[in-house]
Amino acid sequence: MVNDSQELSVIFVPLVLSEPTPMVKEVRSELRPRLCAIQRGPNGYGFNLHSERARPGQYIRAVDEDSPAERAGLQPQDRIVEVNSVSVEGKTHSEVVATIKAGGDVTRLLVVDSDTDAFFKRCRVTPTSKHLTGEKMLYPLNRPHPLPSSATTVRQ
């Protein structure tokens, strides 16, 4: 016990692990959308797209092993935000499929995983290709929530 007349020193020692342990999970430092450029192969792109009534949006159901989609970094449960730089927010399943097919042999999908999607929704911001880079968005201080239409983009 420490009384009023004694000093208490606290020393923080960083934990250094020489090998990964089951207690330590890999942590992503940034929540950003990903751009997956997928070259159509002989069997297509190699992913299945689906939508659900309970949650809006178009999601990746499955990614075929050793497919163009897998090599491009597409993951199951990713939500598609843009197809070939065109927003698919509010589009129907058939409209998104048609947009993907219209891309030709290469389709560029801007996607977010569930953590990134939740983060952007909490911030009330729609992810775009501007969020891929190190650009910072500056918002007026008198706004309660970030509004991209009134934002100024600044490069680091």
TrEMBL record:
Keywords: Repeat. It is found in: Cell projection, Filopodium; Cell projection, Microvillus; Cell projection, Ruffle. InterPro entries: EBP50_C, NHER, PDZ, PDZ_sf. CDD domains: PDZ_NHERF-like. PROSITE patterns: PDZ (PS50106). Residues 35-115 form the PDZ domain. It comes from the Eukaryota. Pfam families: EBP50_C, PDZ. This is Na(+)/H(+) exchange regulatory cofactor NHE-RF1. The lineage of its organism: Eukaryota, Metazoa, Chordata, Craniata, Vertebrata.
